[in-house]
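ugh ok so i messed up the first submission bc i forgot one of the chains. this is the corrected input, ALL of the components this time, i swear. 736 residues overall. if the numbers dont match what u have on ur side tell me asap before i send this to the collaborators (the ones from the other lab, u know who)
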Amino acid sequence: MKRPSAATHMSEVDVQPGSQQAPRRPRSRGLGDLALAVTAHGSALLVFLMAAFLVGVLAFAAAPSFKRFGPAFLVGTEWRPNELERPKLGPDGKMVIKDGESVMEIIPPAFGALPVIFGTAVSSALALAFAVPVSLATALVLVRVAPRIRLGAMLSFMVEFLAAIPSIAYGIWGLFVLAPFLQRHVEPLLQQLLGDLGAFRWMFYQRLTIGGEVVERPLALTGRDMLCGGLVLAIMIVPIITSVSRDVLRAVPRAQLEGSLALGATWWQSCVAMLHYGRSGLFGASMLGLARAAGETMAVTMVIGNNTTIAASPFAPAQTMSSLLANEFAEASSELHRSALLEVALILLVMSLAFNILARWLVVGASARPSDAS
Amino acid sequence: MTTMLTFRRAAKAAVVTIVLGAAAALGNGDVRLQGAGATFPNPLYQKWVSEYQKVHPEVKIDYQSIGSGGGIKAITEKTVHFAGSDAPLSKKEIQALGGESAVVQVPSCAGAVVPAYNLPGLTTELNLTGEVLVQIFTGSISKWNDPKIAGLNPGAKLPDLAITPAWRTDGSGTTFVFTNYLATQSDQFKSTVGTGKQVKWPVGQGGKGNEGVAAVVQQMPGAIGYIELNYAQQNKIAFGAVKNPAGKFVKASPQTVSAAGEAAAKSLTGTVLVANIWNQPGDQAYPIASFTYLIVYRGLKNLKTPAEAEALVGFLSWAVQDGQAITTSMDYAPLSSGVRDAALQALKTITFEGKPVSTGGR
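and heres the new structure output, hopefully the right one now
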């Protein structure tokens, strides 16, 4: 019954003579301490266990797909859940004929994750390309301009308010406002401006294999495409990049700023110096944004077109890892299909984890070692 | 001490209340049946359940629309009493259920898949053929004013607009029917896109569920998507007529879908009834039609009491007879008389603990 730690406590108290109550109080405190310690440690352990369990369960469920496709899953370009039945072709490229009938062969379902890895990478990269400049500019205003004109609190509130909007709301806005606007105004205008230039031809045409021949046909401009997905994601990651960047820029030592001004830097040059000083933290802020963009599901599913192919054009529909899961998981057509989807989920989890760890390391590094100026 | 006692007393009272409450809710002789499966007939099944309960208040039926695949999985694991599925059971699935002699599968109603489109300025109804649909959904026809479409629609003002095909991204009976129909129209389609609940479409935009495809169609000028007839009707989405094997352009309606079903009635034999009713002969028959099915164990080995068995067989028999009267008002196609007879015959072979189940009075 007696635990060594509790015993030490009691003996310490027992040294003091006098009150009858003395031995009782420490024991009850010992129990309380014990309960708290168990709860706290247990909760902390639970977080680790949950994460480990999540990875474990996903890996276990993805095993059939991994066994079937191996590492080729990562570079496979075809995502086809149904079987194909087609005439068997002999080594000479002609149909195999037996008893006057062509022999049919069954092509099993194929699952390759490259189209969705591509979709996630490109949509997130587009989102970063739009969001980082806006976020850095906003963060600079928040740190250097807003306090002087007493707008800091309000601007900060507005940025954080953006973060509180549920993602389905962004999705609906993207679907009903942004996508039609892109389809009716932006994309036709871009086509008029760039469509005739050879260098931009790839943006407006797609290659298709029809009846064994590769043909080029104009792309239907739909507004529900990679570009729209990237834009919606950009708006969704602006708040996190802005608020982390703001904290990073605030951590830039005042001496650094005053020093650059004293050396005759213009306001603009001193801003650039600030950004340069905090660059690793700012990079980390962008990584956090990237992790959020890569994992975002609902809004992207609504606007990206959900076509699991690799198309070069930003005006072609695409699919991300998370939108693939949202679309297909509930009605997966076979155990292999389900398993392949779970392998995609595992890849997404590992990728987001890597982004997050990298980002934390960079951001914490930046604010913990402000004196490490280079 | 006193607090402890009070607590115990309260707990005891609570337990008693819960037990009594449950007993009261499940009155004497009440029967509870659980079903799950296809989403497509869900509105009709919910209506059937509420109508049936008006006649038989002692039978409580709960149908959950978790998808055809989920329904088949659930009945295989015996967690539900009956399942609904848009695609008939595959050989593998029948084996998992214990073989052909252990299963009864009957059509409950018929549905159609329609080509819905968004063409601003078009005042007439569009005529399409299976061949043209194949070419649209594989990308070889890419503009609405293509001569192949114009040739079917003399006099129609077809715009110079890019075509965006819209399709289901989730596995669905709708895709199963549509791809099977297109496969009858083109060997090329069969060997490149193929058939199934979910396929890889070479061009166009995906949407999740009927509502997802309908959203693409309604929002995007130039889009064409395949959706369920009842969904198109209830949401007032324009859709075209399709040429049937008899050479007539037929628009989907409960009548033309039933006509397609009747043509297949002769092929319905045994206890696992299967009939593919796309591309059927007959001037009236709409070519992209299909049955949706109800599935039970023939020996009802997942039921416990004779009362449950009677209630289940009673409900199913009611559904394929009296229940058919409300299909049309909900934009589903009723089973034609030949199909009804075949379904009733199959239901009569159901036994419970080795004895035929009486449905007298139901």
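quick check: The first strand of chain B starts at residue 31 and ends at 37. that seems consistent at least. Chain B is about 40% helix and 20% strand.
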